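Bench notes, afternoon.
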Amino acid sequence: MPIGHHARQFLLAAITAGLYLHGSTSIAHTTFKSQAYEGKTDDNALKIGHGCEVSPGVNIPVIAQSVVFPMVRPELSASDTSTVNSLGDVIVQGTLAGLFDSIQDRSIFLTQGEKQNAAGNATGFWSKNGKLGVHFRGRVPFQFTAPTFVAASCAKRLLVKAAVADICDVTAPTVAAGKVNLWIPDNGSQYANDGKAAGVDGVGAAPTLTVNRDLVTNPFANPAACGAGIDVTVTPAATEVDSRLQIPGYWSRQ
């Protein structure tokens, strides 16, 4: 039987609404604001898309955030499945340590701090004592200096995965749905395992900072072998997530 005019309108509206909701969900993750470009220093930000859902359609505010970048024995993979032995094979600096710097900003969180290595280089950051209104989107700013690609590498992009905890409630048990969103790799960390078991949002959806090679000033040393180039992904190791995602004295996996 042919579908009537009003039925067709209703069906179209329902499909449109469904696509909108799907799209809204897909863009509501915590993500990076911008891509980065080789050799350039620019301001960037982590975009917080929503708070923690305590019941269907009901969120509570994000009050703190912890961010870990891949620094200590990170996982490396290439889009062509070739082996990448170390980050030094891809970028001249050989590490991401010191390329990130926090920007003081109290629009969401009143207290900020950096995670640092023994040399005092930033390897991540944290913020607390805040409140992001549930009807607002958040921006947590930082500065990033994009590294230089190794000329002999065929990498055209470096995809930097971060581990981010958007914290809404610090009471135990802390890794629980409605208390935290864990935008972290699903690579075997205890945070990821506990988060999946507890139905926490974000596990496996780590935000990705794309670093683009400048192929004009830094072309492939062997273009015939590289072709269009490859993507190299660098991800925090499970042990690094477990050891560094906490905010000491304030929030950790319990």
